[in-house]
Amino acid sequence: MNVVVVPLVCGDRFSTELSPCAYKEGREQEKSLENWVFEGKGRMSMYGRDPWGGPLEISHADSAADDDRSRNLDLDRAALSMSSRQLDETQQSWLLAGSGDQGKKKKKKKKKYVDLGCLIVSRKLFLWTVGALVAAAVVAGLIALIVKAVPHHHRPRPPPDNYTLALHKALMFFNGQRSGPIPKHNNVSWRGNSGMKDGISDPSHGRNLVGGFYDAGDTIKFSFPSSFAMTMLSWSVIEYSAKYEAAGELDHIKEIIKWGVDYLLKTFNSSADTIDRIAAQVGQGDTSGGTTPNDHYCWMRPEDIDYPRPVFECHTCSDLAAEMAAALASASIVFKDHKAYSQKLVRGASTLFEFSRQQRGRYSAGAAADAAISYNSTGYWDEFVWGGAWMYLATGNSSFLQLATHPTLAKHAGAFRGSPDSGVLSWDNKLTGAQVLLSRLRLFLSPGYPYEEILRTFHNQTGIIMCSYLPVFDTFNRTKGGLIQLNHGRPQPLQYVVNAAFLAALYSDYLEASDSPGWYCGPNFFPTGVLRDFARTQIDYILGKNPRKMSYVVGFGGRYPKRVHHRGASIPKNGVKYSCKGGWKWRDAGKPNPNTVVGAMVAGPDGHDGFRDVRTNYNYTEPSLAGNAGLVAALVALSGEASGVDKNTMFSAVPPMFPNPPPPPAPWKP
Q: Model pTM greater than 0.70?
């Protein structure tokens, strides 16, 4: 151990010499040091303990240093005293430091952990995290309560427009026309089950023909106009399903269509590949037989009918079969999401269309001649084009498109005549409907050769038809009130007007969907908006904007016909069964109908805006399925916002017009 000699203080003087004072103090410190080293805090051996914690090995070098120190003690006791004092201070600092560290270690708590199974985390971190989550949940709950408690000021939804309001009512008419077992949700309180023996009671037929719709104010079921009605309804759903859904009527109209086409499937052997007959009519309207009870001679509630209802079948009925094929084919697109049912409709449509081509003839000229009284067909070529177009859209089979676009067929149908009358869509003439439908194909898919030439002709003819609706050209007369006279002033004009309004609004949407701002009428260009204006003015007239300020849709507006030519609506449901002639008193009564046939569009005014609300005059007051179907289609096309048509659903079964391009050649290699 080396000793550093420093000046020592003795009294008031610094001294480095050996003096009695210095010697005495030095000797006492020496003894204290020796006691600490050899007898104090643990004895040291050859291996001492380093104050830093490690072993301290005493070597010979240390012993030599000690000998030197002992010799120096005799020379300078003051130096030894100073060195000892420094060592005492150092030792105290070591001891104090050690005791402080031990205190800190004692005070330092053991860190705790939480075992979460898959993870071990600090208990402090775990508690902090849980607390934060609880606090966040409390804050979120408070925010939710505040948001819920604070009143919301949403912008009120605009009230439905007149077209939407009238649409709800127009669809209700079909509920009032149901035949067969009436569902509980039919919402027509004065109707009940009727026609429960149709077809079954006729021994010459023996087929179950329960169901379907009564055609008009009588109780006859005509397959020809009801098929057209179902086709028009299906067409409107395919184009405007979003609008029906927005109005809350999509399920309702689908139910109506299904009710109608399910009955049509009963009128022939829909499970067979080939057929030889179709039930064209149930019930009889010919009153030339005198007093024989039938559907025109008697005036009875449908629920009380007890007279025979014969079935009229046709064996050569190209027009009826092709129209029925169109109805089933268009409905198959409506129900495309119900695959099994849709395929059933397609199979039935294919059977019917094949039958229409095998046995040529008009249905009303054969065994179903009774139908000619009310629905005489003037030809079947237009039904070939119409039915062929729908068959192509339902199946994607190009053979149907080839038939529908065959120039000879188009010629026979009158596509090249250019007559205004050929452009009037009705239950008898479907050429205009077929041309608009095939113009849609050209606008959106452009199939090209070999169809382009005839499709361009149909497209041009469609443009001419739209031009004929415009008042600037005077193609058709108009009443002073503005109603277009598509049937040249003859009775029951409204059924033709609503069809034209539907086609005009629809074609306007076609043009807008194809980014066409308008079309040409000769050298003059007209924007698409004029077509919607035409459609609106005609429907507005029907809804009450006319010289008589009368709505021709029953139940719409404040003033509408109250004496509708309708058996079920005119006889009260009072528990009394009125006989065939007993119901005549209700037919001839001047009082309003006891039951309101909501949504029925009556036949309409005459050519001078005149109207007679008389029950016995069916030319003014009788509604019909075909008329109401056109009304529904026109109303939905004009209702709500101008959201346009659904471009794709119509072509869901149509394959790509052009084949996929071949794959690129393999990379060139040397």
A: yes
